[in-house]
Every structure is written in structure tokens, then in C-alpha cells.
Specification:
The chain is mainly α. The chain contains 13 helices and no strands. It starts with 5 loop residues before the first helix and ends with a helix.
Length: about 375
């Protein structure tokens, strides 16, 4: 990404990554839609009541993957092959240990956290089941995001997409099997998700090891480097904290929402699912910009960094303006994908109309982060 037109590079790099992010969102989307339509409103609310909590645990881990990817892109731009491999090894170690610790804590603290958020008693059991099963799969999500971040650092945003397509199809198929055929309800949806996450992580890592020369590691490479680990932790820890603070604010909001009852939780859950999808183009642009700037920073091409930033702002503004009429006029139809309760649909559509007014501010935040 140190040569060529910045706009073309950013768009071509972003498109496969955006598709991949949207496909990844289909995990939760499929769980919610299938549970909401085949099990009922309460089960849908139970899944939604865990969204902010799972976001917190994912965020705590993924900050380090993003930090490692940025460091790797800088070494890649500088042509330092030795440090690239060290970054792959050190980030991989962090992304194995940290999610195992966080996932264990999430499993055992599921009950008190849900109580703290004032989760209604009628959905408490299902919420706890869904949260605990997802906690068991946290390491798979983290390893997939680690492999994706490393491949993106080298300019490859297409490979992770292929495995996500496969795992998403598996997820939807297992959702239908476990929920609709075996009548496993929320537990079945959660199991389907972690099986799919495992497949995407395993496939991506195996491919990287077989096809990417930087992942072709010898025993001598498999040693931790204190300096490189320090760089990853120094950059990853603030990113992890940043994402975690956002998640904590969402948990505070979830607590308020829970106090209004199941209808409001269901509406908030549907709106949150849509908002997660809306965030994807911004997140993708931010990640593309990080890789672009990282490589050009390593190559010491400051003028290209400035030009890339200007083009990113333009892309962000165009998308924000384009999405505004969609949410203003089609909110009811979008929320109706999840539930058929008119009270829930009206409430969720109103939320989308309000939040869409602020998309350009949201995009600005993502560009600055990138």
C-alpha cells in the first residue's frame, strides 16, 4: 500500500474486509432472527440481553489483535522480515492466553453480571446459557481475528473472507438444525455459533501457515521477544481499553433498557443488531486506514499518509449521507426482520431514525482512530 492511488487502494482493500465483517455479523444476526422467529420474543430478548456483555469480552481481546496487526504492518512497510515473524509469534501467544483467561472469568461471572444489569427473571436462564456458551468460544473468535489482523497487515484482506463465508453457511445450517429440528432453543443457537467460529479460526490459521511465508515458522522463531511483545502490549492495551470502555457504556445502557421490560429489550436488541451492521463500513475503513498508514509510516512516506486520510474522510461522509434516508424511511421493515410484534417494531424503528442522524459523527470517530 506504499505505491498507487490512495483512494483505489483503500477501497479495493476495504471491500473484501467489509464483506467479511458483514458475514461475521451474520453469526449473531442468524442467531437472533432464527430464535426470534422460531422460539419467540422472550428468547430473542434473552439473546439480545447478552450483547453488551459479549461485546465487552470480545473487545478486551481484539484490541491486542489490532495492536499486533499495526506493529506488523509497520515492520512490513520497513521490510524487516525478522521482526514480522516475531510479531506473529508474540501476538499469537497473547491472543491464546488472554481470551482463555477472559473466557473463564466470563463463564463463572455470567450470573452476577446479568443480575447486576437487572436482567428480567423471565429471560434470566436463557441469557445465562447463551452467555456461558459464548464465553467458551471466545478463544476461537480471538484466534480468527488474530489471523485476519496479521494477514491484513501484509495487504491480504481477501483470504479471511473465504473462510468466513463457509463458516457462516455452517452457522445458519446448524442454527436451523439445533433450533428448529432438535428444539434446542437458545442453547442450540449458541452451540451453532461457537462451532462455526472454531471452523473459521482453524481454517484461517491452517491456510496462513501453508500459504503465507511469514507464517512458515521454525522452532527458532517460536521464542518470545520481550521488545516486540512490549510493542504489541503498548499499542494493544490502549486499544483494548478503548473498546472495553465503549462496551462498559453499552452495559450501562443495557441495564437501563432491562428495567423497562421484555418488549423494550427486544426492540433494543433488534436495533443493536442493525447498528452493529452499520458500524462495519466504518470499522472496515478504520482498519484499512490503519494498514495503509502503518505500511507508509514504516516506509517513511508521510505525504501519502496525509493523502490517504483526506480520501478516508470523503468516503466516510458519502456513506453516512447515503444511509440516512434508508433508516428514516425503512426502519419498520428492517426491525421486522427480527420480530413480528408491532410494539417492538415501532420502538426499534424510532431508535434507528434517531441514531442515523449521528452517523457522520460516528464515522469521524472511526477515521480518527484508524
Amino acid at each position: 500500500m506504499t505505491e498507487g492511488n490512495p483512494t483505489s487502494l483503500l477501497i479495493r482493500f476495504s471491500i473484501p474486509m467489509l464483506i467479511g465483517n458483514l458475514v461475521q455479523q451474520l453469526y449473531n444476526f442468524a442467531d437472533s432472527a432464527i430464535v426470534g422467529n422460531y422460539v419467540g420474543k422472550d428468547a430473542f430478548a434473552a439473546v439480545g440481553a447478552t450483547t453488551s456483555i459479549t461485546f465487552l469480552f470480545f473487545a478486551m481481546c481484539n484490541g491486542f489483535a489490532n495492536g499486533g496487526g499495526i506493529i506488523a504492518s509497520q515492520h512490513y512497510g520497513a521490510g524487516d522480515d525478522v521482526r514480522i515473524k516475531r510479531c506473529i509469534v508474540d501476538t499469537g501467544f497473547i491472543m491464546m492466553i488472554f481470551p482463555l483467561v477472559i473466557g473463564t472469568l466470563a463463564f463463572f461471572l455470567a450470573d452476577p453480571i446479568l443480575v447486576l444489569l437487572e436482567t428480567p427473571s423471565d429471560i434470566m436462564h436463557d441469557s445465562m446459557v447463551y452467555l456461558r456458551v459464548n464465553a467458551c468460544g471466545l478463544v476461537f473468535v480471538s484466534l480468527y481475528n488474530y489471523a485476519s489482523a496479521m494477514l491484513r497487515a501484509f495487504g491480504d484482506s481477501k483470504t479471511p473472507l473465504y473462510f468466513l463465508f463457509f463458516s457462516c453457511i455452517v452457522n445458519i445450517g446448524l442454527d436451523l438444525l439445533f433450533v428448529c429440528v432438535f428444539d434446542m432453543a437458545v442453547f442450540g443457537a449458541a452451540i451453532a455459533t461457537i462451532i462455526s467460529q472454531f471452523l473459521s479460526a482453524a481454517a484461517c490459521l491452517v491456510y496462513a501457515e501453508k500459504k503465507n511465508p511469514y507464517f512458515n515458522l521454525t522452532k527458532a522463531d517460536l521464542k518470545l521477544d520481550g521488545e516486540v511483545s512490549g510493542q504489541v502490549l503498548k499499542l494493544g492495551a490502549p486499544l483494548s481499553l478503548q473498546f472495553s470502555l465503549i462496551a462498559i457504556s453499552c452495559m450501562a445502557l443495557q441495564k437501563v433498557v432491562n428495567s423497562f421490560g421484555t418488549d423494550t429489550i427486544a426492540a433494543f436488541s433488534a436495533t443493536s443488531r442493525i447498528e452493529q451492521i452499520i458500524h462495519q463500513p466504518y470499522q472496515t475503513l478504520s482498519a484499512a486506514l490503519s494498514t495503509y498508514i502503518g505500511q507508509n509510516f514504516g516506509a517513511k512516506k508521510m505525504d501519502r499518509i496525509k493523502e490517504g486520510l483526506k480520501k478516508s474522510v470523503l468516503i466516510m461522509v458519502i456513506f453516512s449521507v447515503a444511509m440516512l434516508p434508508v433508516m428514516q424511511f425503512f426502519g419498520e421493515a428492517i426491525i421486522g426482520l427480527f420480530v413480528d410484534n408491532q410494539t417492538v417494531i415501532a420502538m426499534g424503528a424510532k431508535a434507528l431514525r434517531i441514531s442515523s442522524l449521528f452517523y457522520i459523527m460516528l464515522g469521524t470517530i472511526y477515521v480518527i482512530r484508524g
